[in-house]
């Protein structure tokens, strides 16, 4: 690859013999053509470099393709098989990315709120990331990515016991994902405890909802309005705490022709109130020591 | 081939004994070989045409500055990101890659094992030093791969805290490490000039202090980064195409209404939903078609202008100045190196004749002679050489194209002649048959008359 121009421009003896005056063919690129290239006259080093280039290109193209083909059952069987020889190389060079920036749809931000118990018993709350304390912007962004990461790997508590009988593999995967989330969360709590002089720390995840264009035009609210911050509760998928408090829907009785119904259309489900971040008792995931880890 | 098939006489009229499929195959074989040769040649031209390193040298300056900035920012809160008490502590970082929670991968880093803060600081100081060398182009041949290695070690350690900037800055460094990116705008270039003949005499020095002549390595690095950018945009676009907001035109609204990203309040644009919609759709289509439209010379400036607009907006309004700038820098890989070379030549030509420095003996020192008289001439000659080479290559390309066309015509004429011969033979046979038939017809009346 490090061959210089002069070396490259020198055509091999065989090529010179066969194509004494063969110049390069037309090209729409910026390249400057040099030395002839026939299938018979390609030097060995070019073949080697070509193979390396092809290998690298496969390692560049296949990971985002695998990312696109991934579904609940894993990546597509074809891509999953083809990518295998390139996986390790791609992982080491950080090529195993999906490049899904703001995709498929830009979503709300996920933040972390930390409650730090002061010696006098009062609770000091801090929101991460925080532009006022994390400067320059790149440092703020690193903190932002950490809080996003915690929500990205979030897995609700579980799995339900029945799942181990129905689908043990899926249950194990669930357990593993939950374990990862709990360990990362604990690592963040430990860090916050270290930087806060060993004070008791608890964290919870917050979602900062985005107004739709129509909502914003109808009633413009400040983007940092406290009402747009929602606590993301850490609770099992099937839980009493999220069970509806009233009838979810009223199904109209079947009507016969000419008979009017009193029930009317389907009524909307009962709204569940979203707790506000200022309520420290909701959604807090308190610090546990090393023995209390999952 | 299609035209041939349509003009060919019907099977019933073919001369007996002709073997059409084998003739067809014979006609196809050289065309297949020509096609294979064409592709091989295209591949050869695309990857192995020597290229000036100027664009890469500029990109090295920009990428080096960005990488150095990233490491400096990390240094401002180092122990929050690496070490045993970081947000993601050492054990956790290792377990995210060693198979404890997900399939084991090769994204390994020795930083998982360093708990001592002093060692971490020494390591970071070494990283900063190497990155600085890469930025200023001092020992670039060694500094660039080392900077890449340190960067990768940090990437595998900072799992969870990374974003697009880290990807693009790493890829740029990776491809620069393959190339003689220290040949210009660098301390290496200055050293090479200072060393003069001593550098030329030693192969090691020639490798360590490369000159700025066209090289295959520069071309391979350029092509790899260009293709990698195409892949990034293609899959970025395809990912967006899977959503709904990039189609219904509200995606840009959600991006600018995101308080955590926002660095400039653009919500006033909500009064112009058509603009928001147009921006969303344009971004989607630009990303998807970037990989095709960046190559033709006609559309390349348009694609690059949109790239600057899109990433400039991300830098200014979405708070990701570093990411936006780095993407613009990376897009600069599509700028021809001759742009920088020409600028340099123009600058040299524009400068006033340098004042000569005399030594105590009244003689001009060597270096002064070199600087005052030779450099501008050399530069002018180099610029001329590049121009002449360009013109020559164009002539060669045209010549080659004409030659290929001539070959095609010759082959076609040969085929037509063959066909003409066949038709003549066929006509001759038919006439003979007719003559024979007429002969027999002519006998009949005689026979009848006899009867």
Strand/helix succession of chain B: HHHHHHHHHHHHHHHHHH
Shape of chain A: extended
Number of DSSP E strands of chain A: 5
Overall shape of chain B: it is extended
Which spans of chain B of ≥5 residues are poorly predicted at pLDDT below 50? 1-19, 352-373, 441-451
Query: Averaging pLDDT over every residue of chain B, what do you get?
Result: 86
Number of domains of chain A: 2
Largest interface chains and counts:
A-B, 96 and 115 residues
Low-confidence stretches of chain A: 1-39, 255-283, 286-294
What value does the Rg of chain B take, in angstroms? 34 Å
**Between the first and last Cα atoms of chain A, what is the distance in angstroms?**
51 Å
Mean pLDDT figure of chain A: 76
Order of helices and strands of chain A: HHHHHEEHHHEHEE
Concise overview:
Chain A has helices at 5-9, 13-18, 44-69, 77-82, 84-92, 137-152, 161-166, 168-195, 213-218; strands at 109-117, 123-128, 200-208, 229-232, 285-286. Chain A is of the alpha+beta class and 294 residues long. In chain B, 71% of the residues lie in helices and 0% in strands.
Architecture overview:
- Chain B: One of its GO terms (cellular component) is endomembrane system.
- Chain B: Residues 1-29, 425-451 are annotated as: Disordered.
- Chain B: Residues 440-451 have a biased composition (Acidic residues).
- The complex is a heterodimer of chains A (294) and B (451).
- By secondary structure, chain A is an alpha+beta fold.
- Chain A folds into two domains: 37-103, no CATH class; 109-240 and 281-288, no CATH class.
- Chain A has nine helices and five strands; from the N terminus they run H-H-H-H-H-E-E-H-H-H-E-H-E-E.
- Chain A has helices at 5-9, 13-18, 44-69, 77-82, 84-92, 137-152, 161-166, 168-195, 213-218; strands at residues 109-117, 123-128, 200-208, 229-232, 285-286.
- In chain A, strands 1, 2, 3, 4 and 5 form a five-stranded antiparallel β-sheet that branches.
- In chain A, strand 1 (109-117) and strand 2 form a beta hairpin.
- In chain A, helix 3 (44-69) crosses helix 5 (84-92).
- The radius of gyration of chain A is 30 Å and the shape is extended.
- Chain B has 451 residues and is mostly helical.
- Chain B has a domain at 40-211.
- Chain B has helices at residues 2-7, 20-48, 54-75, 90-95, 117-136, 140-157, 164-177, 187-195, 197-201, 203-208, 216-241, 245-248, 251-256, 273-293, 300-317, 321-331, 337-350, 366-450.
């Amino acid at each position: 690859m490090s061959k210089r121009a002069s070396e490259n421009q020198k055509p091999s003896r065989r090529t010179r013999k066969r194509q004494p005056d063969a110049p390069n063919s037309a090209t729409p690129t910026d390249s400057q053509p040099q030395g002839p290239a026939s299938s018979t006259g390609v030097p060995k080093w070019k073949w080697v470099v070509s193979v390396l280039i092809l290998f690298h290109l496969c390692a560049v193209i296949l990971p985002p393709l695998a990312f696109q083909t991934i579904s609940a059952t894993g990546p597509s069987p074809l891509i999953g098989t083809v990518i295998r020889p390139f996986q390790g190389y791609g992982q080491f060079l950080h090529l195993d990315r999906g490049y899904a920036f703001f995709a498929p749809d830009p979503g709300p931000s996920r933040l972390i709120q930390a409650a730090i118990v002061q010696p006098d018993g009062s609770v000091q709350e801090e929101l991460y990331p925080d532009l006022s304390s994390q400067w320059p912007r790149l440092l703020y962004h690193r903190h932002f990515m950490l809080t996003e990461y915690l929500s990205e790997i979030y897995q609700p508590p579980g799995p339900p016991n029945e799942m181990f009988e129905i689908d043990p593999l899926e249950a194990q995967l669930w357990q593993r994902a939950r374990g990862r989330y709990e360990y990362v969360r604990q690592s963040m709590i430990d860090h916050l405890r270290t930087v806060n002089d060993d004070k008791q720390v608890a964290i919870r995840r917050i979602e900062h909802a985005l107004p739709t264009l129509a909502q914003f035009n109808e009633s413009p609210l400040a983007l940092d309005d406290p009402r747009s911050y929602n606590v993301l509760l850490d609770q099992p998928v099937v839980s009493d705490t999220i069970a509806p408090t009233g009838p979810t829907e009223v199904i109209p009785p079947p009507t016969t022709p000419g008979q009017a119904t009193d029930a009317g259309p389907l009524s909307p489900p009962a709204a569940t109130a979203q707790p506000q971040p200022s309520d420290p008792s909701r959604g807090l995931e308190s610090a546990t020591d090393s023995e209390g880890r999952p | 081939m299609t035209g041939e098939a349509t003009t060919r006489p019907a099977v019933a009229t073919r001369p007996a004994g002709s073997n059409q499929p084998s003739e067809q195959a014979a006609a196809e074989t050289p065309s297949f070989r020509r096609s294979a040769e064409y592709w091989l040649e295209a591949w050869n031209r695309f990857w192995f045409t020597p290229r000036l390193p100027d664009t890469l040298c500029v990109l090295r300056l920009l990428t080096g500055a960005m990488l150095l900035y990233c490491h400096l920012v990390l240094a401002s809160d180092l122990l929050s990101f690496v070490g045993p008490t970081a947000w993601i502590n050492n054990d956790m970082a290792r377990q995210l890659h060693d198979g404890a929670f997900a399939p084991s991968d090769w994204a390994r880093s020795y930083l998982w094992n360093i708990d001592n803060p002093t060692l971490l600081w020494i390591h970071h100081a070494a990283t900063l030093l190497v990155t600085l060398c890469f930025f200023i182009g001092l020992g670039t041949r060694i500094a660039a791969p080392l900077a890449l290695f340190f960067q990768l070690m940090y990437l595998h350690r900072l799992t969870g805290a990374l974003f697009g900037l880290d990807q693009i800055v790493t890829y740029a460094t990776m491809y620069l490490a393959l190339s003689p990116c220290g040949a210009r705008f660098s301390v290496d270039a200055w050293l090479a000039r200072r060393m003069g003949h001593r550098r030329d005499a030693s192969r090691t020095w020639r490798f360590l202090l490369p000159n700025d002549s066209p090289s295959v390595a520069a071309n391979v690095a350029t092509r790899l980064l260009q293709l990698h950018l195409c892949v990034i945009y293609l899959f970025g676009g395809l990912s967006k195409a899977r959503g709904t907001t990039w189609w219904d035109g509200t995606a840009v609204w959600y991006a600018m209404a995101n308080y955590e990203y926002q660095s400039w309040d653009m919500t006033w644009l909500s009064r112009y939903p058509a603009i928001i919609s147009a921006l969303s759709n344009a971004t989607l289509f630009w990303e998807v078609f970037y990989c095709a439209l960046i190559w033709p010379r006609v559309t390349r400036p348009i694609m690059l202008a949109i790239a600057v607009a899109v990433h400039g907006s991300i830098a200014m309004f979405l708070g990701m100045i570093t990411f936006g700038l780095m993407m613009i820098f990376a897009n600069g890989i599509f700028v021809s190196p001759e742009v920088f070379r020409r600028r340099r030549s123009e600058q040299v030509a524009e400068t006033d004749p340098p004042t000569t420095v005399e030594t105590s003996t009244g003689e001009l020192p060597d270096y002064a002679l070199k600087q005052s008289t030779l450099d501008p001439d050399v530069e002018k000659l180099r610029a001329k050489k590049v121009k002449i080479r360009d013109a020559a290559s164009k002539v060669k390309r045209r010549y080659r194209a004409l030659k290929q066309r001539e070959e095609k015509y010759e082959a076609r004429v040969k085929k037509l002649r063959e066909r003409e011969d066949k038709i003549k033979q066929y006509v001759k046979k038919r006439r003979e048959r007719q003559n024979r038939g007429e002969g027999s017809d002519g006998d009949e009346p005689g026979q009848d008359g006899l009867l």
